[in-house]
Amino acid sequence: MKSQMIVVMLLAGLASSLWAQLEIRDASREPLENYTESSYWIGDEERPIYLSPEILMSSADVEDAYVSKQGDHYAVNLEFFDPAAQRFRQITAARIRQELVFLVDGKVFTVATVMNPLSKRAMIVGTLTRSEAEQLARTILNRPAASELSQ
């Protein structure tokens, strides 16, 4: 079966810690019961986002994270362990046209709208420099990550 990928546009800056935790949670643009208010940036505009208290996926679910070049910028490719990939497929299949939020070190890093069910792979792309993408990959893995770049 062909693996599917999600392209997540970066909507907020990198966390300052190299050894932070990745969390994926449900999110809403409208207030919901038990959700906490947070915010993220699009350009110069700060926008509210409401976060579920439940962590759906975390760094522990990521088998590998590596950097690749996407045009003039860099991306972080994620590969999930097999049991987590099955769970990610169930999560995304149940959330078509809904938001998921990616937090790094407890701060909103990116907000993504699920467009189709996903499983083994995801890609985080945006205006990252090589250094920022490598830092994010290390952060997600909580260990140094090898870059897979064709120069």
TrEMBL record:
Residues 44-138 form the SecDF P1 head subdomain domain. It holds the Pfam family SecDF_P1_head. InterPro entries: SecDF_P1_head. It comes from the Bacteria. Keywords: Signal. Residues 1-20 form the signal peptide. This is SecDF P1 head subdomain domain-containing protein. It comes from Thalassobacterium maritimum.
